């Protein structure tokens, strides 16, 4: 299992909702950011790190980011 968690690039996100549908842990939502919608991942230990969200993203707005506890090691 990967030590990285999915991170959304809000500038690239098209708010298509595919990550919301793909996440087996249901950690993604579409939120309003200024005048546009964007995907957001809830901060949770329930993330399976399967990256189904990243594979489903047509604009590649979701990429792996090290966990906060991994950064501090």
UniProtKB/TrEMBL annotation:
Keywords: 4Fe-4S, Iron, Iron-sulfur, Metal-binding. It comes from the Bacteria. Gene3D superfamilies: 3.30.70.20. It holds the Pfam family Fer4_9. Residues 4-33, 39-67 form the 4Fe-4S ferredoxin-type domain. Signal peptide: none annotated. PROSITE patterns: 4FE4S_FER_1 (PS00198), 4FE4S_FER_2 (PS51379). This is 4Fe-4S dicluster domain-containing protein. It comes from Geomobilimonas luticola.
């Amino acid at each position: 299992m990967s030590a990285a968690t999915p991170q959304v690039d809000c500038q690239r996100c098209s708010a298509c909702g595919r990550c919301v549908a793909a996440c087996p842990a249901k950690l993604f939502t579409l939120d309003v950011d200024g005048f546009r919608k964007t995907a957001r991942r809830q901060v949770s230990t329930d993330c399976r790190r399967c990256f189904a969200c990243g594979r489903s993203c047509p604009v590649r707005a979701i990429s792996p980011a090290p966990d906060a506890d991994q950064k501090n090691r």
